[in-house]
Amino acid sequence: MTVFKAACVQMRSGCDPVVNWANCEALVREAASQGAHYVQTPEMSNILARSKADQIAACFDQDKDPFLAKARALAKELKIWLHLGSIAVRGEGEKLANRGFLIGPDGEIAASYDKIHMFDVDLPNGESWRESETYQPGSVSPVVETELGAFGLAICYDVRQPALFRQQSRAGAQVITAPAAFTRQTGQAHWHVLQRSRAIENGAYMISAAQGGRHEDGRETYGHSIVVDPWGKVIAELDHDEPGVLLAQIDSEAVKAARSRIPAIVNEREFQVKTVAATSAVETGI
User: Fold this and answer.
1) Number of structural domains, the chain?
2) Between the CA of residue 249 and those of 6, 100, 127, what are the distances in Å?
3) HEC profile for 46-106?
């Protein structure tokens, strides 16, 4: 890994993959024109639609997906590492895969990743999401070694599972990622602290491109695409939910410095958790 410029593309994807590609391409080109060697797009770059039927109707098998094909051609043209945070592609049976791709400057797919943790939640404001009804979860977490460094791939809700990022860091990841479509409510509460925590815990850069604003299907996402350095400092952020480009410089020496100051990964020890039932003869009145 060396010093390079990374970019996050913040989007507001709608229900039409053709329109979404046009918006995505323009922003990726803007990032590359500003010197970005690595460009990351958010979760569900190709489509955001609440209806499972609409999602499935608009999606393709991976080898026939026009959004992915165009992204590969664009990466090759611009000679960049293009990280599609994720797109929806046909999966097994009647389900889709929420799949991210790291595409090399030669246009080849270096690695793909299917989101492991499904966002099945009921939020206080009445929002309810059941990703497991539409998407088949993955089971493999890749770390991709490139000339820029080693990248760990994850998606959105994965950011609440610190063990995933620790295992990636043990495997050599210097940059960890969580491209997202965070809801406005959860983003306002937890986005920054989760991003910073994963960076601090692992002494790694955290790069997360985001969806932002009110979408065509009525949902609201938080935006605030972000880059956090290995010491936990936010070094770049789009402090809004509008589409745009965010750039930051990534330096492997910062990873080395953070991990030498706080060698948390090296200092790990195996342990057991034991539940103990406490008893007391004292009347507590509870």
Assistant:
1) 1
2) 6, 23, 37
3) CCCCCCHHHHHHHCCCHHHCHHHHHHHHHHHHHCCEEEEEEEEEECCCCCEEEEEEEECCC
Cα 103 to its chain centre, rounded Å, is: 15
- Tens of pLDDT along 190-230? 999 999 999 999 999 999 999 999 999 999 999 999 999 99
Does any domain span residue 270?
no
Q: Which of 8, 24, 59, 156 is catalytic?
A: 156
Of the candidates 133, 137, 71, the one whose C-alpha atom is nearest the C-alpha of residue 102 is 71
6, 19, 58, 233 from 67: Cα distances, Å: 22, 10, 11, 34
Number of H helices, E strands in the chain: 6, 16
> Does the annotation count 43 as an active-site position?
yes
What span, in angstroms and rounded, lies between the C-alpha atoms of 154 and 245?
20
Q: What is the domain range of residue 250?
A: 4-261
What's at 134, amino acid-wise?
A: T
Q: Is 267 domain-assigned?
A: no
Residue type, 213: G
Q: Is 115 considered catalytic here?
A: yes
Catalytic option among 43, 59, 201, 237: 43
Tokens 């991003």 identify what position?
Answer: 195
Please say if the pLDDT value at position 1 is more than 60: no
Of 8, 24, 59, 115, catalytic: 115
**CATH assignment at residue 94:** 3.60.110.10
User: Is there a domain that residue 29 lies in?
Assistant: yes
The answer to whether residue 70 is catalytic is no
